Amino acid sequence: MRAILIILDSVGIGEAPDADQYGDVGSATLPNIAETVGGLKLPFFEAMGLGNIPALLPQAKPLLGISAVDTPAASFGAMQELSEGKDTITGHWELAGIEMNPGFSLFPPDAPSFPPELIEAFVEQTGREIIGNKAASGTGIIAELGEEHMQTGKWIVYTSADSVFQIAAHNDVVPLEELYRACEIARELCNPYRTGRVIARPFNGSPGAFERTKDRRDYAFQPTEPLILERVKDAGFPVYAVGKIEDIYAHRGITESDHTGNTETSQEAVRRFTRDSKEGLIVANFIDFDMIYGHRRDPQGYADALVQTDAFFADYIDMLNEDDLLIITADHGNDPTFKGTDHTREYVPLLVYQKGQPSRNLGLRIGFYDVAQSLADYFGIDPMPKGKSFLS
Fold first, then answer.
1. What CA–CA distances, in Å, run from 190 to 106, 115, 197, 277?
2. How far is residue 168's CA from residue 373's CA, in Å, rounded to a whole number?
C-alpha cells in the first residue's frame, strides 16, 4: 500500500471565487501561460484529464493545446482553498488537513517592514546588524544590497507578499551554518507574530553576477493539529519527504527526507523512493515552477518546465503497482503573465490515478483538505477532522 502525493508548486488553473480579496482577479496560471506561449503540448497530462478540468470552474478559461478527453486515465477535479492566504505553508498545510483561519500575519511592504523590537532582538542575538528591512524580490534585493553586505557583513533581511522573514547572506561572508543558526533565532522571535516562514537565502558570486544557491532552508511555524503525515506515520507506515517538504511541515511525521534543491533532483528522489519502498506515503514538492518561473514572470520558462515534468510522469507511471495511489495537485497559483511577482489566489487542479481503475469526475472540491481525508481513507486510518474523501 503506497501513495504518492506530488505538489506542483504554484500550478494554479483559474481565479478563485475570493480572488478579488487578494487583488488577483484575472489570474489563471495554466490557461494564461498556454495562451501566452501559443498553446501547451502536454500529452501525459492531457491523457490524465487535465483538459477536462476547466469546464468545472465557474469562470472557465480554456487550456490552449490541451483538449478534454472522453475517457481520461485519471480521475479529475479542481480544489478551492479555504484557508486565509495564498502562501506555500498555508496551501501545503490545508492539503495535509489543517485549515488556517485566521491566516498568518503579513509585514508591511515599505521600509521598515519589521517591528523595531523584532529587529533589535535579532541583531542582539545574532551579533550582526541588518540592511534591507522591506518587501522585495529575492534576486532584486541581493543585486541591490549584495555588495554592501559583502563590505559590512550585515544581514540582508526582507519580506514579501507572503508571511515571511527572509535572510540573505553571501557564503564567503557568512558560513552556511551561521546563516541557518540565525534563521533558527529568527524563527523563535517571529513566533509571536504568527509568521509563516523564516527562510535562509544563501548566495554566491560577485557584484553584478550574484546567484542564489540551492541551500535554501525554510523554517515553518509549528502546526497546532496533527498532519496527515503524522497520522500515517503513527499508523506504522513510512513517510518519505522530497524537496522542501520537510521544512514546510516543520519536520513532523517524516521517516526519511531528501532535501533536493530543484525539480529534476526531486523527480529523481521520487523515482528512488518509489523503487526502494514497498509501502508508505511519498510527498514531493516540484519547486521550479514557482521559484524560478512564477516569481520571475517567465511564462515560456514555466511552459518548458511543464513539458519536462509531463515527460517525467509519462516515464514514471510505469513504476507504479496496481494498488498504488498517485495524486497530482498544487498549493496555490503564481501566474507569470499577471501583475507583480507574487502568488495568485486560484483553484488548483486535481488528478488522481490508480492503475486499472476507472476514472471519475471528482468535481469542484471545497477545501484542499480533501486530499488529507482521502489519504486517511486509503491507508485505513482514523478520519481527519475536515474534508471528504474522493476515493469513497
1. 11, 10, 9, 38
2. 38
Look up the CATH number of domain 116-220: 3.30.70.1250
Assigned C-alpha cell, 175: 558560513
Distance (Å, whole) CA 117 – CA 197: 19
> What is the reported pLDDT for 110?
93
Q: Give, in order, the Cα–Cα distances in Å from 30 to each of 126, 166, 315, 347, 388.
A: 42, 28, 22, 11, 26
Distance, CA of 381 to CA of 288 (rounded, Å): 33
Q: Residues 6 or more apart from 171 whose CB is under 8 A from it? A: 202, 203, 204, 213
Question: Residue 102: is the preceding peptide bond cis (ω within 30°)?
Answer: yes
**What is the per-residue pLDDT across 208-224, written as a single tens digit (0 to 9) for each?**
999 999 899 999 898 88
Identify the pLDDT of residue 222: 87
- pLDDT digits 0-9 by tens, 127-149: 999 999 999 989 999 999 999 99
> Considering the domain 2-101+222-379 in this protein, what is its CATH number?
3.40.720.10
Task: Give the start-to-end residue ranges of the domains of the chain.
Answer: 2-101+222-379, 116-220
